[in-house]
Each structure stands twice: as structure tokens, then as C-alpha cells.
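input
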Amino acid sequence: MALTNAQKKYLRGLTHQLDPVVMVADKGLTENVRAEIEQALEHHELIKIRLRAERDQRSEWIAEITRETRAELVHQIGQVACYYRRHPKKPKIALP
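output
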């Protein structure tokens, strides 16, 4: 599901009050980290992830997370990336 610019803008506004729920650091995208990301997306729909690495590594992780979770990257600022994936049965966030 591709988000429109208006939907991304709306979701960016919602991310301001969120704290990162997952941190990717030295060990990278381990199976445990991947499972935490999946669980967070399933439960919250909209999540923040802190990526502690150099710019090139962060870009690789962002692409990998987007591909594996089938979530939409809402935005990325520095070491924080925000993702959205609509819950298939019980959506919590109503998009404009």
C-alpha cells in the first residue's frame, strides 16, 4: 500500500509524540530485532526505530526493514526512522 503525500504528512505529525520502540545498534538486524519490529508494527501500526550506525549502514538497514516488513517508511531524520503498516483486521489509525 503506497501512502500519498497527505497521508505521510498526517503520519509524520503523529510520530512527534512517539518514542522509539526498537533500537538497532552494533549487532545489526538480528532475528530478535526483526521479531521486535514485526511485533511493534502488529501492535502499534506506527513506530519509531532508532538506528545507531553510520549513514551508509543506516540506509541499508532502512531498505532492509522496509523490504522485509512490507511497511511504509513515513520519514527518517538522523538516526530515527518511522514506519507505518496498517493492521489487516483491526486498524487503529484512520488515514485521511
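quick obs: The beta strands are 22-24, 46-51, 72-77, 80-84.
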